């Protein structure tokens, strides 16, 4: 957590954009080794070949060749919403020279065997996962969101939205959400009645970066507007297209009146769990705690003797459906990891072949010179 300007520490012009000692060190490492005069900036929106940056004023910037090349090799390296970048002036234009080291990312898995992961947001401190009280809740989806956030290094916070619509079911909804959200704080809120908004607003500290996750209709925009007391985000009623799809088309970096930042990313329709299974394990820490008490290390928690997980299910301490979902997400995570390894191997082979060909061509040209 960054310490914000008090009378003793001089404030930095980028403090309001989430500038921290970690970012400063990352910027210095790049700036000191560059032949250009570089400035730090934060990306508020990314598009093909360029980005909207804040310095703090808003500018458009193109990608320098090195950044373009890196993004071509691995699309996940392209500047994205929330990235800190090093930029320079080039005539009247701005160029992104480098993307600074990231912390807290939100990554969408590539779906096909050779497709690349996509970084949706970077340098995220907290992810507010919104589940509408009147729509479920969908615990399987919530576990996926939690796994995604933990694996990326941010801290998940769960908001049960539209609490006023749950009626008598609210305690049951809250209990269910809390039962699958081990390690994450759960807030019950209503943008409509104001319930729980003050406690949530207290979490939104100055300079912290937040992302809101949740399906269309989870009330994300209404919640941000209610917490901030301003209409900062378009809500669905204003701009629904014919198919009722998500209305946020571009990503923005919104500053709330209290000083927290919200990265507005498009609705995530498909949630694949990352190949790094630490996120899944963290989400299911209750299941893991039982698993560690099993008699055999390689227990598959099915019907083996001395299985502490099955005993917990028999005792009513653990829901069998939760165990099934844990197994499914672990398998998916393993598959995504192997797919990623396969892609990395293929890319490496391709790079070696290209280098080899370049060396041969250079050798040929050199020999041609001598004759």
From TrEMBL:
<dbReference type="GO" id="GO:0005525">
    <property type="term" value="F:GTP binding"/>
</dbReference>
<comment type="subunit">
    <text>Monomer. Associates with 30S ribosomal subunit, binds 16S rRNA.</text>
</comment>
<comment type="function">
    <text>One of several proteins that assist in the late maturation steps of the functional core of the 30S ribosomal subunit. Helps release RbfA from mature subunits. May play a role in the assembly of ribosomal proteins into the subunit. Circularly permuted GTPase that catalyzes slow GTP hydrolysis, GTPase activity is stimulated by the 30S ribosomal subunit.</text>
</comment>
<keyword id="KW-0342">GTP-binding</keyword>
<feature type="region of interest" description="Disordered">
    <location>
        <begin position="337"/>
        <end position="371"/>
    </location>
</feature>
<feature type="binding site">
    <location>
        <position position="301"/>
    </location>
    <ligand>
        <name>Zn(2+)</name>
    </ligand>
</feature>
<dbReference type="InterPro" id="IPR010914">
    <property type="entry name" value="RsgA_GTPase_dom"/>
</dbReference>
<keyword id="KW-0963">Cytoplasm</keyword>
<dbReference type="GO" id="GO:0003924">
    <property type="term" value="F:GTPase activity"/>
</dbReference>
<keyword id="KW-0547">Nucleotide-binding</keyword>
<protein>
    <recommendedName>
        <fullName>Small ribosomal subunit biogenesis GTPase RsgA</fullName>
        <ecNumber>3.6.1.-</ecNumber>
    </recommendedName>
</protein>
<dbReference type="GO" id="GO:0042274">
    <property type="term" value="P:ribosomal small subunit biogenesis"/>
</dbReference>
<keyword id="KW-0479">Metal-binding</keyword>
<dbReference type="Pfam" id="PF03193">
    <property type="entry name" value="RsgA_GTPase"/>
</dbReference>
<feature type="compositionally biased region" description="Basic and acidic residues">
    <location>
        <begin position="337"/>
        <end position="362"/>
    </location>
</feature>
<keyword id="KW-0699">rRNA-binding</keyword>
<feature type="binding site">
    <location>
        <position position="294"/>
    </location>
    <ligand>
        <name>Zn(2+)</name>
    </ligand>
</feature>
<dbReference type="InterPro" id="IPR027417">
    <property type="entry name" value="P-loop_NTPase"/>
</dbReference>
<keyword id="KW-0694">RNA-binding</keyword>
<feature type="binding site">
    <location>
        <position position="307"/>
    </location>
    <ligand>
        <name>Zn(2+)</name>
    </ligand>
</feature>
<dbReference type="GO" id="GO:0019843">
    <property type="term" value="F:rRNA binding"/>
</dbReference>
<dbReference type="InterPro" id="IPR004881">
    <property type="entry name" value="Ribosome_biogen_GTPase_RsgA"/>
</dbReference>
<feature type="binding site">
    <location>
        <begin position="214"/>
        <end position="222"/>
    </location>
    <ligand>
        <name>GTP</name>
    </ligand>
</feature>
<dbReference type="GO" id="GO:0005737">
    <property type="term" value="C:cytoplasm"/>
</dbReference>
<comment type="similarity">
    <text>Belongs to the TRAFAC class YlqF/YawG GTPase family. RsgA subfamily.</text>
</comment>
<feature type="binding site">
    <location>
        <position position="299"/>
    </location>
    <ligand>
        <name>Zn(2+)</name>
    </ligand>
</feature>
<keyword id="KW-0862">Zinc</keyword>
<dbReference type="GO" id="GO:0046872">
    <property type="term" value="F:metal ion binding"/>
</dbReference>
<keyword id="KW-0378">Hydrolase</keyword>
<keyword id="KW-0690">Ribosome biogenesis</keyword>
<feature type="domain" description="EngC GTPase">
    <location>
        <begin position="122"/>
        <end position="269"/>
    </location>
</feature>
